[in-house]
Amino acid sequence: ASKAVVGSESRVDKELKEIKKLSSPNGLVQFVSENNKTDIIARLKLVGRYRSNDVKVTLKLSPSFPFEPPHLSIPPGGIITYDGKLPLTRQSDWKSSTSLISIFTELCLYLSNADDNKTIKL
C-alpha cells in the first residue's frame, strides 16, 4: 500500500472515533456509524415532535481521499431529499485537511434547524 493510503486509513479510523461521539447541539440528531474502509455509513436518527426516523447517510471515500472530497449519498424517498450541494462535499470547497466530522456536523446542524413538518432539502 502507498503511504497516502496508509495515512488516510489511520486518519479515517481516528475520525471515526470522533464521529461516534457526535450528536447535534440540540439533541435532535443522534449518530451511529459503521466503516468498511471506503464507505462510512451514518444512521442519523431524527427525533422531532411528530417523527422518529432513521436516515442512512453514506460517505463514500474515493481512492484518492483525502485529496478528493467524499461523495455523500442519501437514499431517495423519506424525509430527506438531497441535491448534491452540501458545501463541504463540493470539489471547490474541499481541502485535504477538511475533516469528515465537519461534513456530518454541518449535516446535523442543518437537520436540527429544519422545520418539523417539511421535507428537508439539503
UniProtKB/TrEMBL annotation:
Designated name of the protein: Ubiquitin-conjugating enzyme
Source organism lineage? Eukaryota, Metazoa, Ecdysozoa, Nematoda, Chromadorea
